[in-house]
Amino acid sequence: MPSPAGWPAEYRTRWVAAGRPTDFLNSADDVLAIQVPAHLRLSGELLSSFDPRSLQDRDDQTASQFHLLPEGQALRLREQDVSFDGQRWEPLPAAGLGEKGVQYLMQHPIARERGALQATYQVTHHREAWSR
Hints:
Elements: H1 7-17, H2 28-32, E1 39-47, H3 60-63, E2 66-69, E3 73-83, E4 90-91, H4 99-106
Antiparallel strand pairs: 1-3, 2-3, 3-4
């Protein structure tokens, strides 16, 4: 949940990560040219006597809906919508860098640049069966 001062940067980050650009963003001016909606509407619940340990066995997506507040309170965000005019609303772009977002980033010429090796990674993903 962005602060008022951080709203433009948060929105632009989500917009790019969602794969929404249609052209390359080659400079800071290109990023600043992304229009930012004036309105952010949050829907959810304010929870009192909230125990943060209840989030331990939840998946990351569910846990990310909860924002801990002081004195055992939490805010659960169910929906986040944006509007440029306060009349027509649409969901806030998903911040996860999906396949379309990765394809967008990989078509940029800098993705083909080669430089000094910084690190080597090997990742193995195992599909696990969940039982509840």
